[in-house]
Amino acid sequence: MKHKPRPNRLISEKSPYLLQHAYNPVDWYPWGNEALQRSKSESKPILLSIGYSTCHWCHVMEEESFMDPAIAQLMNDNFICIKVDREERPDLDKIYITAVSALTGSAGWPLNVFLTPEQKPFFGGTYFPPAQKPGILAWPDLLSVISAAWQHPDKRQQLLSSGDELTKNIASYFSWSTTDDPINFNLIHKAFDNFTLNYDKRAGGFSPAPKFPSPSIQNFLMVYYHFCENKENKAQQRDQALMMSNFTLRAMANGGIYDHIGGGFHRYSTDAKWHVPHFEKMLYDNAQLIDNYVDAYQITHDSFFADVAMETADYVLADMVHSEGGFYSAEDADSLPLSSEAHEGEGVVQKVEGAFYVWEQHEIDTVLGSRMGKIFAFRYGIKPGGNVEFDPHGDFKGKNILFVAHSLDETANAFGIAKNEVEQIITASKLKLLNIRNQRPKPHLDDKILTSWNGLMVSALSRAYQVFGKEEYLQAAQKAANFIQKYLYDPKNRLLYRRWRQGERKISGVASDYAFLIQGLIDLYEADFDPSWLEWAVVLADRQIDLFYDATHGGFFMTSKDHDKHLIMRVKEDLDSALPSDNSVSVLNLLRLSRLTHVKEYAINAEKTLAHVLSRINAHPESAPQMLIAYVYSQVKPIDVIIAGKKDKKDTQSLLKAARSKSILGKMILLVENESNRSQLAEYLPFIAAIKETDGKASAHVCIDHTCTMPVFDPDALIEMLN
Fold first, then answer.
1. Half-sphere exposure of 129 (CA within 13 A, CB side)
2. 3 state DSSP class of 539
């Protein structure tokens, strides 16, 4: 009789990633005092392994090495082994991935780092196989080499010295020295020029394979478009910015990186054509991409962008939300294949990349029938032998990854039918296939709820509601904000927690939790005009400054002083990558709040942070596109559209719709609904006390630098004024 393996210490954790390793024979510890003290008392190096629950290569390394008793014994005998969920502890991940990048030139996950007992890194890498492969050292061999070096006095001293030197260099990299240099406004144009050089004219995007969505770049290009709109000598650059952004967004939404059956975007494309994705779905990607497509629609009024934004939002509401309103973190790339595909006699069936999402042609024909199947196959590039050209691991042999191979017009012409009939057939086909797909084994759901990522989704849904008017988006944003307030906020001490799962809130919030949530609350206020969201945003902004702001050099540290006594340094982020940096988002938040509240400290802290970050990225301004957006925002005149009227009245709604229809840089919308509401807003903006309905009719004022026009009552007049 086979005995169930004994769990290790991770069994007591709530992180899905740590729980995935709870039955490894490795003697894993969670990060904390017990493991770190044992390292010091036994004078053993630390093996720190960092990943996340939907990480494909994390799964591979666990199955190959961490579940192997002999390899586990080697780890247990020679190291204190610690597992960390990077999504719970972005501070640890930032420090040690920077160390590995400095050592090897690149880094990713799983991240495996060797530390001294003082937590200083001296060696590391990412995935290591159990047996040597060309160019990759075997994991057991690496363990033996490092263990032998540690046990040799002279070589141990070299490792300790290496740890000291690397830690010193990382600390220097993350330190921000004082600068009095003026900001060079040409950084904005330089970043645009660099994006133009990196742009893929054939397939969209700004890199070769693998290709990531890069929502911050799309954000920057659309802001650059607005910024150049009225500059005579920048018409060509303006048009180029919008073309690059929109072509990329259209290419992604037509490619296999987009889920054409269920909506939403996968993590990235492994090829240059956006066809073959890494199939995990992340909350933060989809939140930012909803924003991108909302912006594209506001500029172009092309329904294509609206459809993608709404389909993505609908996916999140269908598959990624807790019953009380918080949003889950991710869905895995891997899932079990259909039972008919499992081979007899092979024991446990292994999960396969993309199994939930791919199709064989005979499945399509069986579900849709001959005629519908042929039309659907033509539209989405389905072939009898599969349509995947780039398949280095052989996961997709005979499979089809849906992408838009032919337009609706081309499909209509090919089959001699009307375009609207094609649309009806495609819509009906997707519903049928979705029902069949939902009967397959689903990918693992990482159901932890993170404050920062929820803040991004609150922001995205609030903006989607403002533009599309779908009440379910507003209600979902409100429920998520209420969830965070109920389960992840300590009102007595005005503190956020980072993670909630299964009734447990844990880990003090880091700067991004405050920054992303504040952004969400400001956008939520502009959606439902409940002043309590604005008041909470102000409370959180004040607390963020108290906990994280560097009054000497400017900028926000990722962690507070008392976040974790074991951290070897406090880090400041200044680069925007898959997520915008907490400093980029914080600067824009403070600039928006300074306009709404007249608190001068907000603007001063924002401008000081801007100056330091932009001086640091002078050589490569494209590395911080979100910070450049904040800089542009700081340079434009604020435009406030203030509407006086009852929110549920038709005339007020008409004015709100008109105000929201125009995408204008620096625009904010406020609603004065009643005396209570007016007095709350007047505490921040005294001039609002004088803005009221006129003869019972809703009115709108356009205010530039708090100098307001005479009221208008007609939506067309408001649009003309905004034009």
1. 7
2. helix
Do residues 720 and 655 lie in contact, with contact meaning Cβ atoms separated by under 8 Å?
no
Of 3.60.110.10, 1.50.10.20, 3.40.50.150, 3.40.50.2300, the CATH number of 447-635 is 1.50.10.20
CA distance 519 to 458: 9
Angle, alpha carbons 295-297-300 (nearest 5°): 110
Q: Tokens 């930032």 correspond to what residue?
A: 94
Give the architecture-level CATH label for domain 357-439. Orthogonal Bundle (1.10)
- The pLDDT assigned to 347 comes to 52
Q: Which two tokens stand for residue 697?
A: 């009719």
DSSP 8-class letter at 262: T
SS3 category, 400: strand
Residue with tokens 């990186």: 257
Query: Which pLDDT belongs to residue 4?
Result: 67
Which residue has tokens 């939506």? 715
Residue whose token pair is 């996340």: 52
Residue 221 and residue 241 in contact, taking contact as beta carbons nearer than 8 Å: yes
pLDDT band at 345 (very low <50, low <70, confident <90, very high): very low
Higher per-residue confidence, 340 vs 599: 599
Q: Does domain 9-174 have CATH number 3.40.30.10?
A: yes
Q: What is the pLDDT of residues 361-410, one digit of tens each?
A: 999 999 999 999 999 999 999 999 999 998 888 889 999 999 999 999 99
Q: Which helix (H) or strand (E) holds 362?
A: helix 361-368
DSSP string of 577-645?
SSS--HHHHHHHHHHHHHHHH--HHHHHHHHHHHHHHHHHTTT-GGG-HHHHHHHHHHHSPPEEEEEES
Residue 3 pLDDT? 60
State both tokens at 702: 């356009």
Distance, in Å, from the CA atom of 248 to the CA atom of 289, rounded to the nearest integer, reads 12
Amino acid (1-letter code) at residue 121: P
| Farthest-apart Cα atoms in the chain, separation | 88
With cut-offs at 50, 70 and 90, classify the pLDDT of residue 344.
Answer: very low
Return the residue matching tokens 């403070």.
Answer: 590
Q: Structural domain boundaries of the chain?
A: 9-174, 200-320, 357-439, 447-635, 637-723
What is the helix (H) or strand (E) element at residue 547, kind and residue range? helix 531-548
Using 50, 70 and 90 to split pLDDT, how confident is the model at 707? confident
Q: 637-723 adopts what CATH topology?
A: Glutaredoxin (3.40.30)
Same fold, 9-174 and 637-723: yes
Say yes or no to pLDDT of 342 above 50: no
